Amino acid sequence: MLVCEVGSGITARFWHDNWTSLGPLIELTGPRGPGTTGLHEDAVVAEALRDGEWWLSRSRSRNRLISMVRESLPDAAGIVASEVDDMYLWKPGNSVASSSFSAADTWEALHPAGEPVFWHRQVWFQGRIPKHAFITWVLARNRLGTRDRLRAWGLQVPATCVLCNTTDETMQHLFFDCTYSSEVWNEFVKLIVKLVYQAAVYTIWKERNARIHNNSFRQATVVIREIKQAVQARLDPLSRAHRSRRTDITLLGTWMSRFG
């Protein structure tokens, strides 16, 4: 939103500009504000000053609108002594006001991020394959058009799983319980888990010895990164070997999608 940083107060509009911590005062008081307080609607901030004070500061009126405006006004001393021009700034959301416009900050202010979900890092990790990430995102949101959902929408389709043709097709069954899917998972995941286990044992032991003999210390994040790199390096040639037999999935692809 646009905010006004008041300097001398000769251009900032008292009622309509966003120059107080409460926003435009006209939104606080409604259309009756100018008439009730005696300050016309097009007045600038400087016009609200009398002898270095706000014109309402000496008012003893108990009118609710007058009290509301009086309590929302900042200290007048800085405005009276200022020779700086009023400045209009851009302030998207809760960010700091700035004289430059940022499309990215504006987008974030208009589309605030929701609460983090537990599957975020499994879907939107660095190095992801976009089309794979998209389908995984749809899966995580339980929005894929599996047959149980199609039938719930009233479509006349068979209930059984397309892959195994034995059990009703749901997302849980299709990707994890189906015998066909289990065969795909088992071929790759078992080997990957074994490689990770051995790489972790080797790297932890190496780190232990380095601390004893070389007085060398590394953070756990560095060790984790080394394990990932070692496993990926091993999976790459294995993936090439598998491509001659199957072209739809690779060991390295499974590693990146599950553990990257």
Account of the 3D structure:
The chain has helices spanning 25-29, 33-37, 64-72, 77-80, 103-110, 120-123, 130-140, 147-152, 171-177, 179-213, 220-243, 251-259; strands spanning 2-5, 49-50, 53-54, 87-90. The protein folds into two domains: 2-109, no CATH class; 123-259, no CATH class. It has 260 residues and is mostly helical. The longest helix is centred in the C-terminal third of the chain and has 35 residues, at 179-213. Strands 1-4 form a two-stranded antiparallel sheet. Helix content is 49%, strand content 5%. A hairpin with a 2-residue loop joins strand 2 (49-50) and strand 3. The chain contains twelve helices and four strands; from the N terminus they run βααββααβαααααααα. Helix 9 crosses helix 10, helix 10 (179-213) crosses helix 11 and helix 11 runs antiparallel to helix 12.
Briefly summarize what is shown.
InterPro entries: RVT-Znf. The chain has helices at residues 25-29, 33-37, 64-72, 77-80, 103-110, 120-123, 130-140, 147-152, 171-177, 179-213, 220-243, 251-259; strands spanning 2-5, 49-50, 53-54, 87-90.
Instruction: Estimate the strand proportion.
Output: under 5%
Shape: elongated
Low-confidence stretches: 243-249
Mean pLDDT: 81
SSE series:
EHHEEHHEHHHHHHHH
- Cα(first) to Cα(last) distance is 40 Å
Strand element count: 4
Q: Supply the number of helical segments.
A: 12
Question: What structural class do you assign from the helix and strand content?
Answer: mainly alpha
Strand order of the largest sheet: 1-4
Number of domain units: 2
Radius of gyration: 33 Å
Helix content class: 40-55%
Largest sheet: 2 strands, antiparallel
Domain Reverse transcriptase zinc-binding: 101-185
InterPro entries: RVT-Znf
